[in-house]
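Title: Prediction job returns without error message
Component: structure pipeline
Severity: low
Priority: P3
Assignee: unassigned

Description:
Job completed but the reporter wants confirmation the result is attached to the right record. Sequence as submitted:
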Amino acid sequence: MKKYLIFIIISIYSSVCLAHIGHYKKFNKVEMEIFRNGELIGYNYYFFTRNGDETIVTNQIKFSVKLLGTIVFQVEGYGEEKYVKDQLVSFNSKTLQNDNEKFVNLTFDKNNNEFNIKGSSYNGKASTDSIIGNWWSHKILQTNSQISPISGSIKDQVVTFLGKEQITQYEQTYLVDHFTLKSKDLSLPKNKRLNFNIWYDPKTYRILKVTYQRMGNWEYRLKSIE
């Protein structure tokens, strides 16, 4: 079970080089709650700080999974994305999965227009068309590949628009766009593929809900924005 659950957070932290930071200029904090099988098990918070043309988005995530009252899997992590205007210039993260430490150190190489990555599962180059796999930015729906915020690995993806839907969440009703986000490489084992349903509010540039199945039914719900 642990092997399956480890994969769950590869794309949680939930950015293409042009992240449209201006869409989020009024955001100071994005608060998401994490549910498994309908039970609240943790949180995923994003904090925004600004200094002139520089924007820093910090990400905090923590959750634990229990079986028969015993914690069988837990995650606690911290990440930081730094932008100058709309350009992602660095990303750093540290994550503790049970007793395993994961990390990513990414920098932007301006001369070659590419990212340099040193991660716990990947070291090398990445295209600036790749995005950090976070749920605060709608650019996750507008790119062909994402970089794991846990380990630095690169995953090709296919995003499909399913249509408009009405959803109710925290006693609020929204008209949203429903997407699926899946791995492009279907030769991957099913437990290693991206396979998300995402509900997005195009009026406010907010991802309201994300669901997927991996040893249970998982859901991320946008609770509040400050």
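Comment from assignee: result matches the submitted record. The domain at 2-225 is CATH 2.50.20 (outer membrane lipoprotein receptor (LolB), chain A).
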